[in-house]
Amino acid sequence: MRNNLIGMCSAVAAVAVAGSVSAATVHVNALGASTGWYADDVRTSAGVYLNGTNSSFQPYFQGALASSTTDDALIAQQLYFTDSGSASGGGSGVMVMDGTSANAGKTSVRYYGNGTGIGTLNSSFTSAFRWYMDPYPTSRTVALNLSVVGSNGLSYSMSWLGTGAQMNAWNTFSLDANTAAVSDNGWRLYGNGAPGSAAGAAKSLNDWLADATYGSILNGATVLGQGFNIGSSQRQCRVGIDWLESSLINGGDRVEFGVIPAPSALALLGVAGLGRRRRRRN
């Protein structure tokens, strides 16, 4: 099952991505303190919340749910890193997010860094990411999310859902604070009386920062984390995140997800490239 998502990738796409990665690229292939990437709102197909001792961000639960290594193992069934020997992501694989087999399931992951905040919310925000939509019985678009603490001390979740994603293909989304709020291609605000998806339209970030009610709350708010989620009510869906670029993370340079190729594999790739160059010269 896990190999299915990765096996669809083309070597041509991998070469293109590999050539664009900067020297400041960070590789992430694990959850927890070693990378600053954590699970938070992860639920099983039965709707049970999971809090892993090592892989979950503990402040998210505020002590309401005890952590366990058993939950770490369950989280790893829905949120994991892989290469599978394929050419995806320039040879470094993907972070797989599995929506589970029931509507109650959900998978969410965020970069929290050291837990004290990764930046402030303002009009200079930019982000881009590349991901693969697996051809499951149903398919969904992965959401980009921000967790922020407003000037009123309350917590809010902002979720951006792009449009036009294709199944069984790589999809690249790019956005900034002026990205148009057309259809669901905009940010929705949740939590602490926020309008959410039922009453609130999707807006660009700048529109939210200028909003009569929430602008003063969100402008300059502390961003606790940025990440991705699929669910709830997204039955039998699965995606693979190849890379992320964000003005809030790694100085804006790329974050690659998945297994880093062994040095011997990289050497073989170099030899193969040299052989191709020689053949072209001949």
* Helix-strand pattern: HHEEHHEEEEEEEEEHHHEEEH
Shape: globular
Number of domains: 1
* Proper CATH architecture: Sandwich
**Beginning-to-end CA distance, first to last residue:** 43 Å
* Residue windows where pLDDT falls under 50 for at least 5 positions: 1-22, 85-91, 264-282
The CATH class is identified as: Mainly Beta
Portion of residues within helices: 10-25%
The number of distinct β-strands equals: 14
Give the helix/strand class. alpha+beta
Let me know the average pLDDT.
80
Gyration radius, rounded: 19 Å
As for the CATH topology, it is Jelly Rolls
- Strand content is 25-35%
Helical stretch tally: 8
What does this structure look like?
There is one protein chain. This protein is α+β, with helices and mostly antiparallel strands. It has one domain (2-281): Jelly Rolls (Sandwich), CATH 2.60.120. 22% of the residues lie in helices and 27% in strands. It contains eight helices and 14 strands. The protein has helices at residues 2-7, 11-20, 58-61, 69-78, 196-199, 205-209, 215-218, 263-281, and strands at residues 26-28, 37-39, 79-82, 94-98, 107-111, 119-120, 126-133, 143-149, 155-160, 169-176, 187-190, 222-230, 238-246, 255-257. Strands 1, 3, 4, 7, 10, 13 and 14 form a seven-stranded mixed sheet that branches. Strands 2, 5, 6, 8, 9, 11 and 12 form a seven-stranded antiparallel sheet that branches. A hairpin with a 5-residue loop joins strand 8 (143-149) and strand 9 (155-160). Residues 1-22, 85-91 and 264-282 have low confidence and may be disordered.
